[in-house]
Amino acid sequence: MYGEKIRTLRKQRGLTQTQLAALLGMKQHAIANIENGLTQFTGVDKLRRIADALDVPLDVLVDDDQGSVTECAQSPEPA
After folding, report:
1. Which segments in the chain show pLDDT lower than 70?
2. Angle at the Cα of 62 (from 10 to 71), degrees rounded to 5?
3. Which of 38, 44, 48, 69 is the most buried (most CB within 10 A)?
4. How far apart are CA 51 and CA 33, in angstroms?
């Protein structure tokens, strides 16, 4: 669920898994596991850190009704 959104946003920002992992203080294989749906999130802390690193609001990652990731990632922040 989150993995596909994270992968899409990461690629849109021109980041490799290794670069995103470095921003988060994680290992590359941890990012690969997240993107492949192999990591279960028990809280929002890690998702919030990922959203911050990708420069998107947390709800872009967690809200299924948010619209496409492309639309959300390119929409300007409300004033």
Report:
1. 64-79
2. 55
3. 69
4. 17
Task: Give burial (CB, 10 Å; 0-12/13-18/19+) of 62.
Answer: middle
pLDDT at 54: 97
The pLDDT assigned to 4 comes to: 93
The three-state DSSP-derived secondary structure of the chain is CHHHHHHHHHHHCCCCHHHHHHHHCCCHHHHHHHHCCCCCCCCCHHHHHHHHHHCCCHHHHHCHHHCCHHHHHHCCCCC
For 35-54, what is each residue's pLDDT tens digit?
999 988 778 899 999 999 99
28's tokens: 């590359």
Q: In which residue are the tokens 């596909």 written?
A: 4
